[in-house]
Amino acid sequence: MTRGTPMARASIPETPEGPQPARIKGRVLQGFGALRQVLENAGRQDVARHLAAWASVDELLARSPELVPVLLNLAWEQRRDPAFGDLFLAEDGTGLAEAQDQPIAPCGRTFQQIVLSHLYASARLAFEAAEKEWATNEAKRARLQWRKEQKAARRSLMRLLRKPREPDFDPATFRLRAPMRGLYEAMKPYLLRPEQFGMVSAYALLSRAQVEVLGDLLPSFTKSEQIGYLAGLNEGDLYVLRRSARLFAEWKLGVRRPKKTARASPLPDDVPEISAEDEAKLVAEESRVFRELMAKHHHAIEELRVMGANAEKLINLLAPVFGDGIWAILDDKRALANVVNTPEHLMEVLGPFCRYVSPALSEQWLQMNDQEIIKDILKFCRETFREKEFASYLVDPSRLVVWASLPSKFNNNFKYQRDAMKSKLVRNEEDLRTVSAGIFESLRQGKVL
Questions:
Q1: Are the CB atoms for 256 and 287 separated by under 8 Å?
Q2: d(Cα 288, Cα 176) in Å, to the nearest integer?
């Protein structure tokens, strides 16, 4: 790729915020040509030939974006080679630029900004190609559908006499309604690092609507497979997942102020906005949760998608009970059904053990006239039994007969006040503990004693 080689149809990469550049089309070509010359002089004809294989800089940016930062950094390292001429002169006239954040003449941009401008160009080309491909496929599909309909309609005599003219299924028309229309504008604020060159092809799978929902989480997804997975979800599903991750992050970090979003209701005037520092922490935790869901909890994702807007209430309910284990509960259909059917006032005392409480067991407990009694019995259970033992007594169907005996044992026979003075009319906590000892033995033996 020496000066004047076929790599001459390069687009001018768009510019990050900063000084407006001088015309750089020729300098981009000059830089790649110089790099090829340097490689040849260094005995790296293999790499030089590989670089020369691209018909244009645009082709390199579009087809092998992951090579671009490697080549740019190689050029930076070799910038003292005479082949690069004045391409790396500092804008302040002190000679060669020595730091990547130092403005370079004559464009006034730093090397870091130049790298980002190439990232923008790679993304734009990839997104345009995806849009064109979608439009071409849609035009073909529409044409085939029209012909199929016409073939069916021609069975009538009138259709045989009058054959309609086939419409012009121009892909350019279909591009106007492509899902990725405007993807570049939506994605550009989140193109922040050279490492994202390798993600450009994956980003092209997304629609503009998906990018608008994912927003500032996008840079945290560092694997193409993650983006590919997200691309398979519609924007409504992504909104539910992001909102769920956000609510959990707010609970975990103790920041419960709602974030303003285009889809959320306006905040009351007396509710302060989240500080920039807290928002950064929330986004980091939100991103961590999102990545964990994609990596380990696909069943949880399906549950959240099915719940839709109801997922918010569930997250608020379960986060204080299960903490980071919440997603494992959502992965387990039976455990989730148990939790959802556990009365909230009993969930407070059961904590994570509510995952073992079947709807039938919850029903027995609700038959207790005084719910304070069953609450305290369950509290005593947690104090008395080891975790695995207590869990087995909750989940084992043979123990249900013991739990089912409690309503008849206490209803109308046991007037309870936790802190009451000792008397025959009102029983206190000490009395209930004494009675509970017999219940615990029944649970151990699996029969009512």
A1: no
A2: 35
Q: How far apart are CA 281 and CA 268, in angstroms?
A: 23
| Amino acid identity at 272 | P
pTM of the model: 0.75
Residue whose tokens read 């004045």: 86
Q: d(Cα 36, Cα 47) in Å, to the nearest integer?
A: 8
Report the C-alpha gap between 424 and 307 in whole angstroms.
50
- Do residues 204 and 230 touch, judged by C-beta distance below 8 A? no
Q: Give the 3-state secondary structure of residue 343.
A: coil
Token reading at 225: 């497979």
- Per DSSP, helices labelled H in 18-87 are 25-41, 45-52, 57-63, 68-77
Integer Cα distance of 305 and 299 in angstroms: 10
- Residues pairing with 89 in the sheet: 96
Of 117, 118, 48, 121, nearest to 78 (Cα)?
48
* Nearest CA among 179, 174, 151 for reference residue 163: 151
Q: Where are the domains of the chain?
A: 25-119, 233-331, 352-449
pLDDT by 10s per residue, the chain, length 449:
333 333 333 343 444 444 444 445 567 777 777 877 777 776 666 666 766 667 677 888 888 888 889 888 888 888 888 888 788 889 888 888 999 999 998 888 899 999 999 999 999 999 999 999 988 888 888 888 877 877 776 666 555 556 677 777 777 788 888 888 999 999 999 999 999 999 999 999 999 999 999 998 999 999 999 999 999 999 999 999 999 999 999 999 998 765 554 455 555 555 567 888 989 999 999 999 999 999 899 999 999 999 998 999 999 999 999 999 999 999 999 999 999 999 999 999 999 999 999 999 999 999 999 999 999 999 999 999 999 999 999 999 999 999 999 999 999 888 988 888 887 788 899 999 999 999 999 999 999 88
Amino acid at residue number 403 = W
Task: Name which of 364, 380, 389 is nearest 435 in CA terms.
Answer: 380
CA–CA dist 148, 134 (Å, integer)? 21
Residue whose entry in the numeric block shows the structure tokens 């869901």: 293
Q: How far apart are the C-alpha atoms of 206 and 227, rounded to whole Å?
A: 8
DSSP H helices in 108-194: 111-153, 157-161, 171-175, 183-187
